[in-house]
Amino acid sequence: MFEIERKFLITSDKWRDSIFSKQRITQGYMTVDNEINSIRVRVIDKEAWITVKSAGELKRQEYDYRIPYPDACKMLASLARGNIIEKIRYRILIGEFIFEVDIFEGVNEGLCFAEIEMTREDEIIPLPDWIGEEVTHDHRYYGSYIGQNPYINWE
After folding, report:
1. Domain count across the chain
2. What is the DSSP string of 64-93?
């Protein structure tokens, strides 16, 4: 399976007017070599997944599997490399498209950006006025980088 995703900075809080869901996410990376792949464990409420992603920017292979919640907690506590990432994800509906806005907490407090998954690389997405610079090709906005290089240390 492939994931096709674009990432953008946010220029205002106007996105908050269109929120239709909110979830707290905790995640950690078991591997952090984005030149090959990344392996992530993610917990949302009492549900958990392990995800393997290939290297790449706009289009990457992605394999996502549910795992038992207690196993995920043990993996995050003992196997995750770097910092555990804590964020709140807001889902925003704009026309037929769903944008996800991630607001980070902890050592990444102050970091926020929007993502949108697409069905094709050439798909035209209408961008709302609160969307700013595209950062899809900037490795700093990938989870495995953020876990190793907390936002509080960015210059």
Report:
1. 1
2. EEEE-HHHHHHHHHHT-EEEEEEEEEEEEE
pLDDT for residue 37 = 82
Please tell me the predicted confidence (pLDDT) of residue 34.
Answer: 61
3-state secondary structure of 148: helix
Q: Given this model, what pLDDT does residue 59 score?
A: 80
Range of the domain at 28: 2-153
- Measuring CA to CA, how many Å separate 152 from each of 3, 8, 110, 148? 29, 19, 8, 11
- For the chain, helix (H) and strand (E) counts, in that order, are 2, 9
Q: The domain spanning residue 121 has which CATH number?
A: 2.40.320.10
Write the pLDDT tens digit of every residue in 132-141.
Answer: 999 999 989 9
Q: Is the dihedral of CA 85, 86, 90, 91 positive or negative?
A: positive
| Catalytic site positions | 29
